[in-house]
Amino acid sequence: MTEIKKPGTNAEKAVENALRIARSEERPVRILFVCLGNICRSPAAEGMMQHICGDMSPAQRPELDSAGFYGGHAGELPDRRMRMVASRRGLVLTHRSRKIHESDFDYFDLLLGMDDSNISDLHDLAPTPEAECKIARMSDFAVNYQYADCVPDPYYDGLDGFENVLNLLEDATTTLRKLIIRE
Ligand code: 4NP
Asked: Which of ligand 1's atoms lies nearest the C-alpha of 41?
């Protein structure tokens, strides 16, 4: 059974909570990846998770989406640099940026923020204490990058920053997949 080794995080509890909600409604779990612009980190997380869950049965395969707090890039494809580094790993990112909305807490079972600011904004947006239980930090699932405490914003970095994001996301989505299929 996969275990997240980072002490004191609520990541595993949030996944258990999400799976319980999904099971009670007899449907696959719904996950929303969240960052600021929804053009770099969260659409990459969505694309990578989609990719690694591609072999799961439709009944088990999670329903995925991503969104951001800024909203200024609404309707845009992911950043050209992110699409380029992702394509080298076989990922085609087609998500169109959108702003997160309070109602996302009704629809999704698990909302995964990339950094402190996303996590804090998610807690501010959550309408109820139950909604707050759906929030977790993406980097808490990164077991190989154990000391990473966020997926850092690469927007003002070079391509290295984008590669670093993908490395962290590969690690974190692998753990998430294991938790969902209870390996
Ligand atoms: P993301 O990166 O949050 O990973 O999508 C950013 C993209 C755009 C901006 C900030 C962060 N921006 O301020 O436009």
From this structure: 4
pTM exceeds 0.90 for this model: yes
Q: Which residues are catalytic?
A: 35, 41, 153
Residue closest by Cα to atom 14 of ligand 1: 37
Q: Which structure tokens are listed for 149?
A: 């405490």
Mean pLDDT per segment of 10 residues, for the chain of length 183 residues? 72 96 97 98 98 95 98 98 98 98 98 98 98 98 93 96 98 96 76
Residue among 38, 70, 116 to mutate when testing ligand 1 (max atoms within 8 A of CB): 70
86 contacts 43 by C-beta, under 8 angstroms: no
- What backbone phi and psi angles, to 5 degrees, belong to 22? -65, -45
- Tokens (6 digits) for 106: 């009704």
61: left (phi over 0), alpha (psi -120 to 50) or beta: beta
